[in-house]
Design brief:
A hairpin with a 4-residue loop joins strand 6 and strand 7. This protein has 294 residues and is α/β, with parallel strands linked by helices. The strands form three sheets. It has a five-stranded parallel beta sheet with strand order 2-5-8-1-9, with helices on both faces. Helix 10 packs parallel to helix 12. It has 15 helices and nine strands. The longest helix has 15 residues. It is elongated and about 70 Å long. The N and C termini lie far apart (52 Å). It folds into two domains: 164 residues, P-loop containing nucleotide triphosphate hydrolases (Rossmann fold, 3-Layer(aba) Sandwich), CATH 3.40.50.300; 105 residues. 45% of the residues lie in helices and 14% in strands.
């Protein structure tokens, strides 16, 4: 399997730092999975799409859930359908191969062209899941005992693995990956990201929104801090709602776009009420919060 000579340089709808682009290209050159960590909203999942778009490759996404097993990524043997066909069908069921359905990893292996494979939120699965994939990711092959067939990757996929750090991943798995942590963007970096999605947004509106956004993220004890996607949605709401920059800090309009938990709304209100009157803090009531929600 030949190594790819193409280099990732970001894409028009994804702002990648030099360090992130270097990590992607090192992983491609060394033919190792790239493990991406970072808090929600830092663009981990969108990175894989950006890589696929930039390199002109197909993206295959394997969304991991708490019940996902490694076997499902390789193949599934549909014994129920075979039993049904044997009882009610009118065709030969002796060919087991027709009841073998490849999973996302199997699909990536058998693709006629190199693909980008995203294994999204690997830490949602049980602790054995990463270890169960070690051999397949190393050897780029797996065995199907039902058909006595070995599936070997035609082209080694570019593997991107994301984790929200909900669980610690096994050391043996980590050793086989290139690692990169995506830090949450600073205001300057966030402005560049926002401009990709809202290129014509008024500068003063954006500045006031960014100041308020980061102030909310810094409120103590917020359970779910607003992320990049919430900010982009909030800015769109502000524009559609015709909100002037002066009203943003005073009224916190459409706050329900940023904060998604009742507990966080309570925390914010308690925080604002606890500030000194000298700074003339924002004092939104529950009625005003409801007024500015969708």
């Amino acid at each position: 399997m030949a190594k790819s000579s193409m280099k990732y340089q970001g894409s028009k709808d994804y702002i990648a730092s030099d360090e992130l682009m270097n990590s992607v290209n090192i992983a491609i050159a060394l033919q190792k999975p790239l493990l991406i960590k970072g808090e929600p909203g830092t663009g981990k999942t969108m990175l894989a799409k950006s890589i696929a778009d930039s390199l002109g490759k197909r993206l295959i996404i394997w969304n991991i859930k708490s019940t996902t097993k490694a076997q499902e990524g390789l193949y599934v043997y549909d014994t129920v359908q075979r039993l049904y066909d044997s009882q009610f069908g009118d065709h030969d069921v002796s060919d087991i191969k027709q009841y073998i359905k490849l999973g996302k990893l199997g699909e990536a292996f058998t693709s006629d062209e190199q693909v980008v494979l995203l294994i999204d939120e690997i830490d949602k699965a049980d602790l054995e899941f990463p270890n169960d994939l070690l051999w397949e990711l190393d050897q780029m092959s797996f065995y199907i005992p039902e058909t006595r067939e070995t599936i070997v990757a035609k082209h080694r996929p570019i593997v991107i693995i994301t984790s929200n750090a909900e669980k610690e991943l096994p050391d043996a798995f980590l050793r086989r990956c290139i690692f990169h942590y995506i830090a949450f963007p600073d205001p300057e970096g966030m402005e560049r990201i926002v401009r990709v999605h809202h290129p014509n947004i008024e500068k003063r509106l954006l500045q006031q929104a960014l100041e308020t956004f980061y102030a909310l993220r810094n409120v103590p004890n917020i359970q779910k801090k607003p992320s990049t996607s919430e900010l982009i949605d909030w800015l769109q709401a502000l524009v559609v709602g015709g909100i002037s920059p002066n009203r943003i800090k005073q009224e916190l309009p459409f706050l329900g776009v940023l904060l998604k938990k009742n507990e966080d709304l309570d925390t914010l209100l308690n925080h604002l009420h606890g500030k000194t009157q000298a700074s003339r803090p924002v004092q939104p009531s529950y009625s005003s919060l409801n007024r500015y929600r969708y």
